[in-house]
Amino acid sequence: MEKFTRNQRISAITKILVESPNKIINLNMFTEMFNAAKSTVSEDLIAIKDILIKLSIGKIETISGAAGGVKYVCGISKEESIKFAEELCIILKDRERIIPGNFLYVTDLMFNPEIIHKAGTILASAFNKLDVDYVVTVETKGIPLAYEVARMLGVQLVVVRRENKVTEGPTVSINYVSGSTNRIQNMSLPKRAIKPGSNCIFIDDFMKAGGTAFGIIDLLKEFDSQLVGTGVLIDNIDIKHKLVNDYVSIIEFNGLDEKNNAVLHPSKKNKV
Amino acid sequence: MEKFTRNQRISAITKILVESPNKIINLNMFTEMFNAAKSTVSEDLIAIKDILIKLSIGKIETISGAAGGVKYVCGISKEESIKFAEELCIILKDRERIIPGNFLYVTDLMFNPEIIHKAGTILASAFNKLDVDYVVTVETKGIPLAYEVARMLGVQLVVVRRENKVTEGPTVSINYVSGSTNRIQNMSLPKRAIKPGSNCIFIDDFMKAGGTAFGIIDLLKEFDSQLVGTGVLIDNIDIKHKLVNDYVSIIEFNGLDEKNNAVLHPSKKNKV
């Protein structure tokens, strides 16, 4: 039978835990994998626990009982979180990003894995303590961010569509009013996408007036489910009247100043 | 100055490397972080290298020179890859998944982080050796999978839209013919999304006749860029005439049998 050193076990256990956030892994998996006693694996886990806490890069939780084991819970230090937001503000202030109509071009950032991985970790950290069943987003730009949050929370992602698709079976559709443009829009979701009685988190790229988040609450009612949290990358605080109040954000965008520069700063609604 | 044990360093270095696939990390980052000599960190890296190879769960590569350092390259064993494909076939064979029109409901799987993380690792492993600049997909269902492949390859994701968006600035649009329905469709992409002379990988959920992949080749020409690889989760081999030949897939779907059961098996085009 193959033998493993403590160093080797610690490296492999760290990788396995980090790659499956919020998933409970039974210690038997490790004892079998490494042909090691439970006490040996427990000591390995203590070393891993200690360093994650020391560096504020998440934690290892122990769950007792028959279905028990250990799980990795994502985390990031307050310093790292603010540093990330500040760096993102500098990237966003590039004048080339201002598009006719005073939109900010953020598509490349929303599809940049390095940025989205970190942003997802920050947002997920705000919801780690909640009992979440699904992470919900509306197509398209927020999908990678919502996916990262779902992955960190160890739950299923649900993507609300703007129109029905023939490949999704029976769907539930609702109309809602976009808070910023006042236009009536459509949202639809396959009937089988969400189980009744579920707790959902809504994740999106931008928060304007909050019309979409408000629509999500309505849509979830059709599934006998509820919204328990909302998180966005950028909060447009230039729009003062919001339809929702309770949400987490990473960056605040306060429109353009008299010199046509985007006004941006780290958000006061970052919960890390 | 804080001291760290070898076990602690190995756990933290593993986490940092695994969370930034294909990104070169300079050894100075680790020596400063742990207040340790370069030779000490090098020894830590040897332990990590060894265990990844021993378990076939990726590898650590050393890059020499001024911009050098180490990077984690994702990987999965052939056994694990086949086991994953077999398990996915069982999930997909559920009769509830057959939707009027003989479509297979796969939306929940494409938005399941555990499945997509593994599928992304398998597909990315096929392209690890290529010099890739972007991973391209077409909205919507393939986005999480394409995002995972982009993350594993350490490159930017690009999402082609079905229609123009006012928030994306000048765009390039093309029309293409869907190979399976023969309908003319539209694809558009912001002009600034891809730099000229780039190598791109196309990732999608389903391969039918390959019309979309064919359209992507045309679209990339408008960006003076080229397609160097294609990967899908499910290949519909019931459609015999394909517009593209060279691609990687994980599952093969051969339509419904006489009892109306989906015929599925692990793909022969899996390159792991």
From TrEMBL, chains A, B:
Domain Bacterial purine repressor N-terminal: start-end pairs: 6-74
The question of whether Chloroplast is a record keyword is answered with no
Q: Note the SUPFAM superfamilies from the entry.
A: PRTase-like, Winged helix' DNA-binding domain
Q: List the InterPro entries.
A: PRTase-like (IPR029057), PRTase_dom (IPR000836), Pur/Pyrimidine_PRTase (IPR050118), PuR_N (IPR015265), PurR_Bsub (IPR010078), WH-like_DNA-bd_sf (IPR036388), WH_DNA-bd_sf (IPR036390)
Keyword Membrane attached: no
Annotated GO biological process? negative regulation of DNA-templated transcription; negative regulation of purine nucleobase metabolic process
List the signal peptide residues: none
Q: What is this protein called?
A: Pur operon repressor
Q: Which gene encodes it?
A: purR
